[in-house]
Structure formats: structure tokens, C-alpha cells
Amino acid sequence: MRLDLKQRLVLALMIALAGFFTFAVVYAQGGGPAFPTDDDVNRVAQKLYCPVCPNTPLDVCETQACKDWRAQIKDELSQGWSEQRIIDYFVAQYGQRVLAEPQRSGFTSLVWLLPVISALLGLWIVYEILKGWRKSRRAYQPAPGPRVAIPPEVLERIERELRETD
Amino acid sequence: MVTDIGLIALSIAFLFASYATIASAYGGWARRPAWVESARNASLIVFPFLTISVLMVVYSLYTLDFSLAYVYDVSSTAMSPFLRVTALWGGQNGSVLFWAWIMAGFVAVVLLRKWEHDRELMPYVIATSMLTTAFFIGVVLFITNPFQRLWYVQGATDLLKAVFPPANAMPYAASDGGGLNPLLRHFGMIAHPPTTYIGFTGFVIPFSFAIAALITGQSKGDSWIRSTRRWSLVAWIFLSIGLILGGRWAYDVLGWGGFWGWDPVENAMLMPWLTGTAFLHSVMMTEKRGMLKKWNMVLIILTYSLSLFGTFITRTGVVSSVHAFSKSALGPAFFVFIGVTFLGAVMLLYWRWNTLSSEHSLESLLSRETGYVLQNMLFLAITFAVLWGTVFPMFSELITGTKITVGPPYFERVTGPLFFALLILMGVVPGLAWRKQVARNLGKMLWVPFAASVVIAVGWGYLHRMHPASIFGLWLVGFVLSSIVAEFWKGVRARCASRGENPVQALVHLVGRNHRRYGGYIIHLGVILIALGVIGDSFFKLNTQGTVAPGQELTIGDYQLKLNGMRAYSGSDGREITESDLLVFENGRQVSEIQPRQDYFTVQQQPVSVPGVYATAGKDVYVLLVGWELNGDTIKDATFKIYVNSLIDWVWIGGLVMILGTIIGMWSGPEGKEASYVFKPNLVPAIPLPQEA
After folding, report:
1. Helices (H), strands (E): how many in chain A?
2. Which of B563, B585, B595, B646 could form a disulfide with B536 if both were Cys (CB 3.0 to 4.6 A apart)?
3. Which DSSP state fits A143?
4. What are the residues whose beta carbons fall under 8 Å from the beta carbon of B643, sequence distance 6 or more?
């Protein structure tokens, strides 16, 4: 089969394109660090707490157990697990205490709810206090004092001293 | 012999403290001054006896007497003499004794000064403070005794710890001890417990005066506030220093690139600091306006109870596990004591509630009074949020049986907006007048700082990363900062105009004439610098982790780090050190060389990461060595965790500024008399003025 010039050109172009894409894919694989990197692992680990040490986030804990858990996260990420799936897996394995942030449903929603309620209650108390103080002012009406004439030099001195102390 | 002397001194101190409590309460109640005088002398004697006891523990630690259980636990032959001495507060038993000793010292100093002014209050001041001291000495004596010896019983697997010989036991002396926890061998952790304890125990003084004022009915006036103002400031500044040192220790030692992790132990310290700060502000309004008296009482009771609660949390480990509570008698003893203290104080307050009404009314909603009420409420709301987040895991474990963690995301999200509101008040309230503020004048005063802060924030946002919350935060910092500067500027300008002083003279005289006011502004300045550091840490932090072979580079932001080599050697205090050498380049130019390393403590089998830090006023490059691989004898590669922490150094600088401000604020100067002047505008003028015809 003979190809005419036009067909030969198209074929050459297609081979060149295919070659370029192959090269591009190989290059991309070799150029950047392979997924998952340590940073990818830490991004998941920082949302979790070490299941054994008290109050230590998983991304900073340097015990052997935590290193193993981070290696496990790395495995799971490379198997294509989503972040949420890994977190759910850890919760299922070790309980809710591995979550840095308590869940917003069920009993633990109380931890989020109460501060909001208390802040609103606080605002209401502030309102009541200020209202009470205003009321005591209305109840207390001082008799109008004698009108006084203050000599200008005294006024000036007061003004000056006020400026200095202010 | 040494142990016996320490134990006897401790027992005598306990007897005297108990006697002083009872004698002073009886003397006050029956109005028998001789009993009060005797109680005072007994209180004064407690301190020297406790000092003997403390010295005996220190001596045992220093000479490594491993027949003592406490020495065996926290000291070791590999430790330097300095560290051995600081091990006094490196473990449970020693630190409770140390707590009691500092408290006894505080009380002794108060009783040694002239107390003619407070003759009425004194019996109950002694009773309250000595009751607490007696409780702590009792805990040391009966529960966490540092003079317990080690005993060996034939056939038993563990050594026994007891003061007196158990049945069939032989005394046992180990050849070496466990040594101080490696994480605690840092200047921040050596200085942090003493400063924190001074802060915690210092609040016993204002608390005792408050209780005495409630019992005697003197709570109506404010003499108890005047007598304790300086004590409250001392306690507060030491608590502040303790917080900052703790943060610095976490930053240098714990290896997570930050200084605050919302850990229960940190929160335990933050809570009394928050209520204590509110108290310091609140009493100012009582001095000036005779208002907020109930608040002062509530705040000092909370501050003191939270100080005890903080000690309870840190010393019993109850938050990390509820089960720690029942492991020793310490938990229940503390729990009962805190309960009695808190409920007793609240009942007293309830009894005197009606005597604590305001002497004045509110003239305008736009006034400094409103600002003070709001700030008190904000401090309380933050305290509650922190308390709730700290104790919630305990409730969860008790009620549902599930262990949960309440981590930084909760605390940041809940307290963040409240702290922002508090900072806004800090910028606005100093510009408000007492009683009534004309809105137009307020606008006149604040528009310059406001405009300046907007320019700063927009400029910053344009130059750097556009994170909306960070720009808002920087606006806030800019606003408060420029409003403080404006306060100084106003005062200096007035003095320059009226007295013809040059600006430097005017500034010195301005601060010199009103220590309290300008000391306060300087403290605010420190707080706002810390806020700047916190904003940098929250919004501009970069971090990465990577593995490199020698000669290779890691890149983060504008920085490149090149691994230059590694070495291993033996260090002091029984540690094996693996140290890396990194060259730091900024945009291709070498700026520093740092040595992040890992110290392995062989006795405790514990690794400790020591970061390598390249610090500038703008940024810290903070590098941790987290692992390495060997290829035979040579290094194959090493893994580093790198943080670029923006603005973090302003936290430490802010801390120093706060200390400076507090020292200025406490200084008694020419304004001593002026400060006691009470502003009571509703009174009829005492000097008759010429009547208008």
C-alpha cells in the first residue's frame, strides 16, 4: 500500500505526538517526587491524634508506633484511599479519641454548643447589668446644684491640667 | 539523718500552720487580739521550717542519696549538679513541697509588712492563707512525701516506697537513679515551674483579703483592693512569665514547630491568667467609680479556684485519663479541697451579695464603664470555653465511656473570635472617658489610628499572601498599636506645649508621673506584639518534610537547605547525639548554618529532637532532624521536617515588653497619693465656689 504525501504527513504527525506524550508522561514521573510524599502523609496525620500517647498529634509524634501508623497512612494513600476514608478507618480501629476535632453530632456536639450558649448568655447578662445601672440613675435624680460662675483663670488652669493628665 | 531532719521540720511546719489557721479564726471571731498575734507568729515560723525541709531534699538530690524514693526517681549520677538541684521541682513529690514552700514565703512577707491598715481583716487573711498552706503541707506529709525511702521485701518484685519500714522490709539503696525526664532539661522548663508556682500561689494573697473582706463586711469599701493591688500584679506577671517560658520550652523542645498546643496542662495555666487579668482590670473600675464590686469577688474566687484546679490537673494527670484520679489519694484530696474552697467562698459571697452594690449609676452607654463590663464578660467567656474544652474528655469518658480528644481546632475556632473582640476593646476603651463619652470626640481620637491601621493592613495584604483572616488580624494589631502610640503622643504633645520640654523629657516625665496608666499601656503593647506573633504563627506558617542525601537540597518558600554532613558523638548528661549540618540559603545566598540534632538519652531510652533554628525578626527557619539511614558507616540520607514560622519572635519580645510594663506599673512613685484619689463625680464639691449673682 502506497501512502500519498498527505497521508504520510498525518502519520508522521501522529507518531510525533504519541512520542511526545510518552516522553511527557515518563518525564513527569521522573521529575516530581512520587505520590504520596511525606507532606501528603502529614496532611492526613495532623488531623489525627496519636492513639497511645496523651495529647500528641500524629504528625509530630516520634514514637515507633506513630512512625508505623504514618507508614500505614502512606500505604493507604498510595492505594488510592481518600483522606476521609483513612480517618474513618482510624476511628473504627482506635475510637473517637484519634480525632483532633470532636464530631459535631451526638454527645460530642455539646462541646461546640455550650460555649455558644454561654457567650449569648454572657451578652444577655451584660445587657441586664447595664440596664440595671441605667435604672438606678433614673431613680436617683440629684437636686439641681447651685449655678456657679468659675473665674476664667481657674477654668484655664483646669483645662490645662486636664490636658496634661489626659 | 538528713531525711529525719527534713521530716521533722515538715511535721512541725504542718502543726504550726494548722494551729495558725484555728487560732487566727478564733481570735478574729472572739475578738481576742492575743490569739491573732500568736497565730501570726506561728505563721511566720512555718516558712523557716519548710525551708529546712526543702534544703534537706535539695541536699539529698545533690549528694545522690538513692535510698530515698524521690531521689531515685528524678536524679542520676550522669546529671550535672545544677540539674540535680532543679530536680526539686522535676517530679511530683518535690514540686508539691516546693509549692507549699513558696506559698508560705508569700504569706510570711505579707505578715511581716505593716498591717495597721488592715487590722480588721488580718485574722481572716491569716486563717484563709494558712488553711491553704496547711492543706499543701498535709498533702506533702501524708500523700506525696519526698522523704519516702526505698524498701525491699523478700520475694516481692517491686520495691516499696514508704516513710516508715513496712513489715519484713529491708532498707534498699540503688546504685543509680532514673534521672530527670530528658524533656525537662531546658532552661525554660527549669525556670517555668518556679515562676508558675509563684504566680499560682501569689493569688492566695488577694483571695485571702477578699475572703476576709467578705467575712468582716469590709467588702463594701475597697481597702482590701488597695492593700492587695501590688500582690495581684506580682502574681499575674509571674504567671505571664511562666506561660511565656512554657511556650518557649515547647517551641525549643517538643519539636512541633509551635509554642502553644492547647494541651490540658497549658490550658490549666491559661485559665487563672485570663480571670486574673480580668480581675486586675475590674478592680480599677472599683477604685475609680465604686462599681463592679461583685465582679471583683467573682473573679478573684474564680482565679484562685482555677489556680488550685490547674495544680490538680497537672499533678494528678486526671485529664488524660479519669483512672489516674483513683490511683493515689492526691486526686480525691485535691478535689475535696477545691470543692470546699470554691463552695465556701461562693456561700460567703452570697451572704454579702447585697452589700456589694454599685456606688454609682451608668450615665451613658458610651462610656468606659460599658467597656469594662464587656471585657470582664469576654474574659469569662474565653475562660469558660477553655475550661469546657479541657474537661469535656473527662465528662465524655465518665458519661458515655468513650475517650475523645478536644484538640486545637476547637479552641482556635471558639476562642479566636472572642480574643478578636477583646483586642478591639483594648484599642477603643482607653479612648473612652469615664461616665460619658461624646461620640464625636471619640471619632476625633480614633480616626487617625483607624486610618493608619487600614493602610498597614491593606499594604501588608497587597505585599503578602492574601489570607482574609490574616489581613483582618493585622488590621486589628495595627489599630490597637497605633491607638496606644496615639495615647503616648497626646500626652507628650501636651507636655511639650505646656512646659516647653523636649519630646524625650516629656515622655520620661509623662510615664514617671503616672506609672499605673502608662505601665498599663506598655503591657497592652506587649500583648499586641504577642498577638502579632500568634497571627504570624496561625496564618503564615509553612512546613514541609523531605529526605535528602549529603550535598542535596530541600526547598521551602524562599529558603533552600543543603545537607552538608552528619556526625555522632557522646554528650553530657548521658546522651548520644546525632547532629546534622545544614547550610541555609535565602534566594540562593547563604545566610546561616544550623545543626538540628537528635539526643538519645540512654538511661531513659528516650530520643529528644533539638531543632536547628535560623531566627530573624520576621521569620524563623526551624528544622528538625526526624530520621536518617546509614550505608555501612557513612550516611546515606537524612529526613528533615522544616517549618518557616513568620513573626514568631514577637511572642518573646512581647513577653519582655509586658514585664517592663508591669515593673513600671508597680513602681510606687510621686503619684502614690494621686493614685489613691478616688474620682467621685456625684459628690457635692467640697470647696465652695463663688455663687453667680
Report:
1. 6, 0
2. B646
3. P
4. B257, B541, B542, B543, B620, B621, B622, B623
Residues B569 and B444 in one domain: no
Does residue B692 belong to any structural domain of this protein?
no
Q: Are residues A16 and A60 in the same domain?
A: no
Please state the pTM of the whole predicted model.
0.86
Picking from A49, A125, A137, the nearest residue to B405 by CB comes out as A49
Are residues A14 and A48 located together in one domain of the fold? no
B405, B422, B498: which to substitute to probe chain A, counting the most A Cβ within 10 Å?
Answer: B405
Per the structure, the complete domain to which residue B447 belongs is given by 438-540+650-669
Q: Is residue B379 part of a domain?
A: no
- Interface contact A80, partner B, CB < 8 A: no
Do A148 and B692 lie within an 8 Å CB cutoff?
yes
Do B44 and B34 lie in one domain? The reply is yes
**Cβ atoms within 10 A of the Cβ of B221, count?**
14
Residue A99 C-alpha, separation from nearest chain B C-alpha, in angstroms: 6
Please tell me the total count of domains within chain A: 2
Cell numbers given for B298: 467573682
Give the length of chain B.
693
User: In the A/B pair of chains, how many CB contacts fall below 8 A?
Assistant: 145
Summarize pLDDT for B509-529 with one digit per residue, the tens: 888 888 888 999 999 999 999
pLDDT per residue as tens digits for the range B474-519 = 888 889 998 898 888 888 888 888 888 888 888 888 888 888 889 9
> Do B48 and B170 have their domain in common?
yes
The pLDDT tens digits of the residues spanning A36-65 come to: 888 888 888 888 888 777 778 888 887 788
pLDDT value for B578: 92
Q: Cβ of A52 under 8 Å from any chain B Cβ?
A: no
- Residue type for position B348: L
Q: Note whether residue A24 is domain-resident.
A: yes
Range of the domain at A43: 34-105
Nearest C-alpha of chain B: how many angstroms from A109? Answer: 11
